[in-house]
Design a protein that fits this description.
The structure is a single chain. The chain has two domains: 244 residues, no CATH class; 117 residues, abc type-2 transporter like domain (abc type-2 transporter like fold). It is 66% helix and 5% strand. It has 15 helices and four strands. It has a four-stranded mixed beta sheet with strand order 2-1-3-4. α3 links the parallel β1 and β2. It is elongated. The two termini are 26 Å apart. Keywords: Membrane, Transmembrane, Transmembrane helix. InterPro entries: ABC2_TM, T7SS_ABC-Transporter. GO terms for molecular function: ABC-type transporter activity. It comes from Anaerocolumna aminovalerica.
């Protein structure tokens, strides 16, 4: 077992860099776990900071209209200074400016097509709420003005408020009592792909570069140990190295996750990680065959995993990425690992139709690993022939 022992002696030379990756990953996950909250079961309306300019303060319908909008707007009194209001909008002190014209109430009651003046921060997500509330109130009032001739201002305000204040309770039936939130586990294992691949490229790459040095290869050729025995011990060392990292990731996930039980989803996450680690080991082994220096191995361990992780959806969810990017990413195992994790997160006690897809994604990762190992053997054979 001389080669096996030498493998871990060489691995010690890279333990500092590997430990840094592991430490940074742990820190990121701990920070992430702080934001892991309980499942949200209710909705609370956020009020939009609004500057109000009211030129029709004597109208009862206008006053009722403003009182209604207080449920949606946090009104700010900035006066009638256009420059001051524009500055507040520019510096985001307010997100919406509502101006009610002179004689708005009187003209509205007479049935004229009048509108309020609106300004908002460009591309703001919140102003739609105010626009909807304004249109809801005014359109409801116009319906009563057309349907009830001679209606008084007090009656109109009363009828409008009675209609717009109607609340509808919405319940989503999704068997929530049997469903668990695996959002944290999904993010955790997606991030793990980056660290695992980085550590494999760094650790395995450093060791294999040393073993494939031309002088050491020639010395091993005349050594009493056969090449097959040497390769078997190297593969054994790589497997132990990867399995140790898998075990660390699994233990850390159990410690940090709010879900302490070992469910079917959790087991699938673990299985998917172990399958991916085989692909990561195969990729690292092939790259170690192609590079010629430890500096190259260290550079690749920084650049390649980061690029593959961003491209494959480990950091940015795949549903936010374009079709072309996803097609390009599908030619590497990280993509299928992340896709498997995303599918696992959707499983619950009453939904198992996607479980075959998860195993299919694992098979694809194994296929990548087999192809990479086969390519490594071809490269190794050619290098041996060239060196001899």
């Amino acid at each position: 077992m001389q080669v096996f022992k030498l493998y871990f002696k060489l691995l010690k030379n890279s333990w500092v860099s590997i430990a840094i990756y592991a430490f940074v990953f742990a820190a990121l996950i701990i920070i992430l776990s702080k934001f892991q909250g309980n499942e949200i079961t209710d909705f609370k309306q956020s009020k939009v900071k609004t500057a109000l300019v009211n030129h029709d303060k004597d109208s009862l319908i206008v006053q009722d209209f403003i009182d209604y909008l207080k449920d949606f707007c946090d009104f700010k009194d900035l006066g009638n200074d256009d420059m001051k209001i524009s500055d507040a909008l520019f510096f985001r002190d307010v997100e919406y400016v509502l101006t009610i014209p002179y004689n708005f109430g009187e003209e509205y009651l007479s049935g004229k097509e009048v509108t309020v003046e609106k300004k908002s921060v460009p591309d703001s997500l919140f102003t739609t709420t105010v626009d909807t509330a304004i249109n809801n109130y005014l359109n409801t009032g116009r319906s009563y003005l057309e349907a009830v001739p001679g209606i008084t201002e007090e009656q109109l305000a009363s009828y409008i408020r009675e209609d717009v204040n109607v609340k509808t309770e919405v319940a989503i039936d999704q068997a929530t009592e049997n469903r668990k939130d695996y959002g944290f586990a999904n993010t955790y294992f997606n991030f793990a792909s980056y660290v695992l691949l980085s550590c494999c490229l760094l650790g395995i790459g450093m060791v294999m570069v040393t073993f494939h040095n031309i002088d050491i290869l020639r010395r091993n050729t005349v050594a009493p140990i056969s090449i097959k025995n040497i390769n078997a011990q190297l593969i054994g060392g790589n497997i132990i190295f990867v399995l140790v990292f898998d075990l660390i990731f699994i233990i850390l996930s159990v410690i940090l996750s709010n879900e302490k039980g070992i469910t079917e989803n959790v087991l699938l996450y673990w299985m998917n990680l172990i399958v991916f680690s085989v692909s990561a080991m195969a990729m690292s082994y092939l790259i170690a065959m192609l590079i010629k220096s430890r500096q190259a191995a260290q550079a690749l361990s920084n650049v390649l995993p980061l690029g593959l992780s961003f491209l494959s959806g480990a950091f940015v969810p795949q549903f936010l990425m374009g079709d072309f990017v996803l097609k390009l990413a599908s030619f590497n195992p990280v993509y299928w690992f992340v896709r498997g994790n995303d599918t696992i997160a959707k499983l619950n006690g009453s939904n198992h139709e996607n479980i075959n897809k998860i195993f299919f994604y694992m098979v694809i990762q194994i296929g990548f690993a087999a192809a990479l190992f086969a390519l490594s053997l071809v490269v190794s054979k050619k290098k041996s022939q060239r060196n001899n």
